Structures are given as C-alpha cells and as structure tokens.
C-alpha cells in the first residue's frame, strides 16, 4: 500500500485579504486571487490527514488552452524541491491537517490567468475560483518593470484617476479622466485582450511585447480592438469622443459585446491604454504634446498652406499639426536594446500609421528621441518627427491663372511644445519636455539633431501637396535649420493674444502685436485671419480677416485689433459635434527689406464652472448627497444640456438630461452616493451642450471606516 493512499485535499484557502495587501492588488474588484510575479504568496491547504515526509504533494499551475510541461505552460511545483522555470514553493508551517504553503513565481513569468490544482499521489483537487491572475510587478527588483520610487508607483500603477491635458499651447487645460483599472470586468477585459493578442508565452513575459500588442488592440483597426476612431464630426451611430469621462464604461462594454466601442479620439485612446497598462501592472502615464506634427513621410517637415488672406487651407496638406496629441509612456528596462535606453517608453494607440503592418506604435525609448537615436525599435522615427519637425509656411497665389507657391517662413521651434503629464501625487501639470528633447539651441540639441538627420533623410524644400510639385520646385536644402526665431534684418516679431475672455456668445476680441527692433522707418504689410479648427488642425470655418499696412518708427511695436462678431461663429459652434479652437494666423512683410514672418496661435473658448457640493468625508456604506450646480453666465442659451457624472467606488457613470439652460439660469442636480471603498475618492462631472462640448470638474472626498 502506498503511503499517500488516502491523502486527499479537502479545501484550499487563497488567503485573499493577506495576499492582496502584500501584493498591492487589494483594489481589484474580482473574486479571484490577483498577485504580482516574483513575489511570494501563501495558500492554506486542508488535507484529509497530516502530511508525512513520504507524501507526494504538488501544486500545478497551467496557463492557456492546453498547458504542457515541455512548453513551459504547465508548472508542477513540489515543496522544498529545486525550482521549476524560476518558480518555487515551500512549506511555511504544518498544523495537524492544515498545511501553509508559500509560492513564489518567477520575476519573468508570463503574465495572465493560471489554473491551479493540487495533486496528491493520484488524486487531483480542483478548487473553486482556482484561477489566479498573475501581473507584472513594479515592486520586485528582479522584474524588468521595477520602479524604485514608492510615490511614483502610487501614481503610475495604483492611481485610478488623473488628468489628460488638452487645449492648445496657448491655453492648456486639464480634462479629468477616470482610469478605473480596479473596476469590475476591467481586469477581465485586459486578460481577454492578452488572449486576443496571440502573443507567445515567452512574449507574455516581456512588457515591451505586451505594451506593443496593447497599443494595437486598443484601436479597432486591424483586430476588432477596443475603440473605433472617428474624426469626421458625425457620431450619431455611437458616443461622441467628447462624451466619455473615463475608461471604465468603454472597457466594460467592450468585454460584454467583444465588439469595438464607438468612438474615440486621441485622448480616449490614451486614457484606455493607460488603464490597460496600469491594470496589467506596468507603470504608465498619459503624455500630451502640444503642436504635435503628424507627418506622413518622416521628412521632419510639415507644410502649411495659406491663401492670400492668410487663411489656412485644408485641401493641400497631407501632413498636419495637431493642437495637441496624447500618447502614453510605460516604464521598463529594455533588455532587447543596447544599454542606456531603460526607463520611459512611448506607446501610442491612436491609429495614425501602420508599423509592421498593424496600427501600433512603440515602445520607443524616450531617451532615444532625446538623443536622436531614431534607428531603435519601435517607431522611433515617427515619435521623433511628432516632437521635432519644422513648420514651413507657403502662400498660394494665382499668377496668370496658375497657382504658385511662395515660401513665407520656416518655424523650427514651434513643434513639440509643453509636453505634459500629471505630476506624481499632486493635482497639477508637470512639464516633461526636457525628457523628450534638449533645450532649443543647446549644443546637445544640435548633436542630437545631427544624429537624427543621419538616420532620417529629409527631402529638399519642395511643397508636398500633390499638384503643387508639378508647378515649380525649389533647391533642396537638407541641412537642419537650427534657428532661434526666423532671423530677420529688422528683428520682426509677432505676438497674438486675446484682449477679452473668449466666451461663446460674446464677440471674440483678439490682437496681433507687430514688433520691430531695428532703428529706421519701416512699412509693414500685415495680414491676419481668424478660423475655427478641430484639434487635428482641420479648419472648420473662416470667421474673418484683416489687411493693414502700418508704419513703425525705429524700435517699436503696434497692436492691431481683430474682432469677430458672435453671428460669425455661433452657428458653426452649435452645429459641430467636436470641441473647436480659435485659430489666428498672421503674416507680416516688411516692404523695405522683404523680411517675412508667419505666426499662428490657437486659443480655446472659456466657460463658466460647474461646482460640486458634498461633505469632505463620509463613512463606508453610509449615504451622502452630492449636488452639481451650474450657472449659465454666457449670453447664449445652452441647448440639449447633458450632465455626465461618475465616482469610482461611489457610483456608476450616470447621465442627467438637463434640456436647455437660458442665460442667467441655474441648473442643480443631486445624486445619492453610497461609498463602497475606503480612502480618497473622486467624483468627476462634465456638462455638454450643443454650444459647449465639455466643461469638466472634479472633487475629492475621503471615505473612512
């Protein structure tokens, strides 16, 4: 008779509250055990009798459809034996029929869902809820996503709320976003994406491979991924990109239907990808770049075409400058690259260009962008161009019935400004431009640029629009233009500002300031235009132009007003589905010297605030009331108002239909809240109407026992 005859397992306790606290996974709203790799967790096994030395007991962990030992997808762990693929197990203590075991997974184990069962001799015990979720571990020094700083891990792995910075370089604002990586079904949605990615078992060990796959799966383009992008302005068959306030609804809906959710634009893609990466345990942050180049030929140049009135033309440009673009940085060591490229890696799930046949982008080492090492994988040329291209302005004039293109100026400094992310542990914007690029004009910048140019072959200075190139060509100058401002003989300088708050329903009052620093008498032809444009740089409406000739004496300046009446823009504003920005473009030409200069500035509309009234603290499971108050201080009725509110751990996403709010009227909505989780929680609110595409606010509350 074998000694183990009769030894059976009668139960397993996964000691969930103990393990999840140790593993920083106690936030996940799921009944299964969630642990991080490379760190011990304990399980209590109950047996039919005491464990003896001769007994054969093993824990089996299987991953995937058909786990097999020789493929590394089935691990058989015996107490106190040599490790198996870097995993080990030991007996912590025996107490009669109870046996406490400690399991340590390998710090480079494949992440995913493991089925656990226990084998005693020939008996097999399958526990209920025996699926264990294994994640990346930034707390483990041997995991390549290890992050030493505690406060950074709190922010980049555990914070389930944050901000995404949008607007324009002239007026940046924060859009609150609920990442919600711990909410119900979000972890399951991420596991579904991992399975759908068809990554090999060894690729699942590698955060670079996983983050690249997730950048592809968050957009729907090749693989029925999470979000369908739409920049058309028509969102009738789905949710307008402006109407989301977080990732939770999107990922829950996707997990339920397994079909792409409609619709996303760049900040939605970045918000969802941030949720997915934090959920899987990879430190991640949303990164916004203002005036980001979307360049279709990696030639480090974006051509902007203006008509003689100084209005930007849509039709001619293949490439564009987006007012802002949002992607993500994920933190890891790059074991596949030479030394020096560890740390933040850029990934981007907004579908722009194919990389290796799929709409995916990254991980690209942020240090490679800064140093100009744009030959490194993945997609470093593309990311480099987004933050380093030059803007070349062309004026299109009719000469003898033919269109001719005249180069007005080149702006080498305006692309890739104010690169922003939420600060660690604080509700403010942190500028991380220096992580992506050296100071303009510094020696390091010049060296980095020369390095980048040795890998990217920019074309000569030829207008790039399809039929423009047939008309006339210019001599190619492939040397990088490193200038502070376009150098002019007169020191010509332009500034564009608003002189009154830009509120819907009021006249838009702006000014163009022309400065000259050289002594003498100067005649300046100034052309100015005002347009409404999408954040992608696409012009939606022409609002008005000015053309003036001014005289400046010596070193002096003059301010020329540009005023647009409400009638000129309100109709467009209330008919578009997207948030639009006010674009002002100025062209100045000094007659005496032929100096030319172009300047453009995008500004956003300013709105009255929403206020949130609620207590500062509340007790777990005790109801409290939260009120949202908005006073319409604008001179225009806001039609079809909707208030969207969400509080993670307090209440699910809720929409209030508010109808029309007349000028001067006050809207008040109340919601009864029941907190289900401890700690600092946030309530996010957003008001949307035909005229205003999003006034957001948020307020924090501390939930105590």
Secondary structure layout:
Layout: E1 9-13, H1 16-22, E2 33-36, E3 40-47, E4 57-63, E5 74-77, E6 88-95, E7 98-104, E8 112-120, E9 123-125, E10 131-135, H2 150-158, E11 161-168, E12 171-178, H3 186-196, H4 207-217, E13 227-229, H5 248-257, E14 261-264, H6 266-280, E15 284-294, E16 301-306, E17 320-332, E18 343-347, E19 364-365, H7 366-371, H8 380-388, E20 390-399, E21 402-411, E22 417-422, E23 429-431, H9 433-436, H10 443-455, E24 493-498, E25 508-516, E26 521-533, E27 539-553, E28 556-564, H11 566-575, E29 581-590, E30 596-603, E31 610-613, E32 617-619, E33 624-631, E34 638-647, E35 651-661, E36 666-673, E37 679-688, E38 695-704
Parallel strand pairs: 2-10, 13-14, 16-20, 32-38
Antiparallel strand pairs: 1-3, 3-7, 4-5, 4-8, 6-7, 8-9, 8-10, 11-12, 15-17, 15-22, 17-18, 18-19, 20-21, 22-23, 24-25, 25-28, 26-27, 26-29, 29-30, 31-33, 33-36, 34-35, 34-37, 37-38
Portion in helices: 10-25%
Counted beta strands: 38
Write down the Rg: 29 Å
Major sheet characteristics: 6 strands, mixed
Runs in which pLDDT lies below 50 for 5 or more consecutive residues are 460-486
Distance between the termini: 56 Å
CATH homologous superfamily placement of the largest domain: Transglutaminase-like
Average per-residue pLDDT, rounded, comes to: 92
- Provide the CATH topology of the largest domain: Coagulation Factor XIII, Chain A, domain 2
Continuous helix count: 11
Structural class: mainly beta
